Amino acid sequence: MASLPRADYDPRRIFLISCPSLPFFKHRRAVGVYAAGALFAIAHALFFDACALSAHAKPDTPTDTVPVHVDFVDWLPGIFTTLGMLIINLIDKERLLSQGSYGGEPNIIWRARLFLFIGFALMAGGLAGSVSLLVLKYIVPEYETRFQYYGFANVSQNVCLMLAAVTLWLAQHASSEYEYNLQL
């Protein structure tokens, strides 16, 4: 005897257990945007804290020197990740999904996807750069943990920026309380 599919089963679904949507929570978009902004602020606050600690670092004895400081090289991963986040979230999502020509110009979808790739490449390069800086500049020379914090703050900044980009991307796709979907 063959088993019959459940009445509420949709064969296009990937998972059998559906995640409940939150219809009672009508401010999803605003919460997502604020959460992305909070992650963005936390990311840069972590790195600026490391920069301030580096600028005011004192050696253990007056005859010693501070072995490592935050340089311009440490700023580059955060700059690349921030640029990638801006590029990704400035792209109109409808241009990525539309088939055919958009507004009379057939290459607009290809250009939007190219800029999306560039944005993701900048973000991935920023994260890879921060991890390589952590390992090569702070962990391999075996500095004290107070100096290794500079590298960990850099990696944390880039991870928070990437999470902020994903959160903002998802929040832009969430339906707003002012948006109506009328279909016939």
From TrEMBL:
- How does the protein associate with the membrane? Multi-pass membrane protein
Where is the chain membrane-spanning?
31-55, 75-91, 112-135, 147-171
The record's annotation in InterPro entries points to: UPF0220
Q: Which PANTHER family match?
A: SMALL MEMBRANE PROTEIN-RELATED
The record's Gene Ontology cellular component field reads: membrane
Q: What protein is this chain from? A: Uncharacterized protein
One Pfam match = UPF0220
Signal peptide bounds:
none
Q: Which family does this protein fall into?
A: Belongs to the UPF0220 family.
Write out the annotated subcellular location: Membrane
Q: What are the UniProt keywords, alphabetically?
A: Membrane, Transmembrane, Transmembrane helix
